[in-house]
Amino acid sequence: MDEKAPSGRLPERERPWVMRTYAGHSSAAATNALFRRNLAKGQTGLSVAFDLPTQTGYDPDHELATGEVGRVGVPVAHLGDMRALFEGIPLAEMNTSMTINAPAMWLLGLYGTVAGEQGAELARCAGTTQNDIIKEYLSRGTYIFPPAASLRLTADVIAYTLREMPKWNPVNICSYHLQEAGATPVQEVGFALATAVAVLDAVRDSGQVPAERMGDVVQRISFFVNAGVRFVEEIAKMRAFGALWDEITRDRYGVENPRQRRFRYGVQVNSLGLTEAQPENNIQRIVLEMLGVTLSRDARARAVQLPAWNEALGLPRPWDQQWSLRMQQVLAYESDLLEYPDLFDGSHVMTALVDDIVAGARVELEKVLEMGGVVAAVETGYLKSALVASLADRRRRMEAGTDVVVGVNRFTETEPSPLTAAGAEAIEQVDPAVEAAATSAVREWRAGRDAAAVDAALARLRADAATTTNLMAATLECVRAGVTTGEWAGALRQVFGEYRAPTGLAGAAGAGGDPGLGAVRERVAATARELGSGRLRLLVGKPGLDGHSNGAEQIAVRARDAGFEVVYQGIRLTAGQIVAAAVEEDVDLVGLSVLSGSHLAAVPAVLDGLHAAGRADLPVVVGGIIPAVDADALRAAGVARVFTPKDFALTGIIDDLVTVIREANGLS
Predict the structure, then answer these.
(1) Which family, according to the similarity comment (predicted)?
(2) At the topology level of CATH, where does 18-400 sit?
């Protein structure tokens, strides 16, 4: 028990949590400048966002990278890019978080090499590689290799950092995207802890860490969580997380030291819960969500990064990120929050909430373990189906008005917002020339290398990957030889193969008692009869590297419930693959989902492909985070409809899809 001052306050005010903003776009040089500005404004740690080609192991000149370079993060294709990213930033003095998963080993190798070039001792470097691949198969989609091979890479990184970088968090078990994919608090805790068990088992079973050092491993594992607007429930969730983590690490892994068993986590509050409609309401949402992970001292986040008010509109500007940073600073420095012990000790309400979540999460965890662990639960599709079903339930409650979202399904009357009056200027714009520059730069980098050294390094990587050797040494040799991100991942693809995760649609629940669905079913059936086909056929396509598939999956589920035959092949498809599927499956409509900002490149590529295939008559609709000016451009290019986050009523969207098919076929 903490010694308290007579007033009930702590003897001295606590230090605030690490304050970050999730940042990166365009180029390494531009992101470096953004980092410097944010640090000057009082940010106390770095959180690096990488672009989708980097996250999925492709160079900027790869076909799948088209339209994606520098959009949702910074492109890092080789050691030169990493040098530019951290130029003038002393890594030995900086807590650096890198949101990277499938190629986490590669980016850590680049980071460590740059730190060494700066003269920093690796043992002093503090920070985090997210390095949690399991949630990528379930929600985010930036996986590369099969689960078993990916867990091997995770274990190798943990073993390496235990020896060389003892202040580094080598893995950040990430429940953040599970919540966005539909997880209830019980599922979020249960599924995340099942992932943690898989990671710890992989490390233990690899033989790289002595049994007596498992406490050191546990001590360096952190978590990255989501905080929704139901902040009382979120406080209980975090307290439940801590209680179960303490229990698992003590009983399953024999960790006796309670300090090593402490639940350590960072947080970004819910981005996909922010709204395009009345986006000024996102400010109070972000603040309430921040309270959910800061109010309880015994379950307080170690690091916090907040989204910006306009993330449902596009990429935030530096000013928007500053506003979110200032929210943290006002809470930490102006309020009295850090002067008191835990505010919820002895609360009957909080104790009951925590107990409920602990009990439910324990059931979910045991269910996964009985299936053979989290890898088996991924490969069978159980986890994905559970999340798709939970998200469908959440959507139904929102559409029915049971769950109120202010400005979206209630209190929709509004004055014009001065925040969005600037139109396209209200978000950050990525210059299309960025991609061309990155493509040229990576080719120039390849041309200037010692080709023999590159070949030798890649040969060693492939050879080591075929054994049980820790791959960090071979990776570091690749870094020093000038290997690129795409070449490193490509060499491992040759050994491990690639993977396509289950879509989760088969086990998803239907639309239940949606009163409008019956009429839409009748329209679907009638339109199919008029066209002389058995059923209307919808192709749902995810072009490029955007792995945010939640919206596409919910559209697919609702369209299927309405009587459509749905063709959905999952994420990461080229325009050519989407066109080929549309022609071969003889679909009536193509629906494209793009949330990464690459819509102006990805969508015209599909339209051009359909035209070349003789199917220019096939209607195309698009959904995603698409600014109004871009939506106009897509419609001018031939897109029949553009849907954005404000279009939340799925049954209404499906009804509109029927209208599009009827219009395209000249039906009244």
Answers:
(1) Belongs to the methylmalonyl-CoA mutase family.
(2) TIM Barrel (3.20.20)
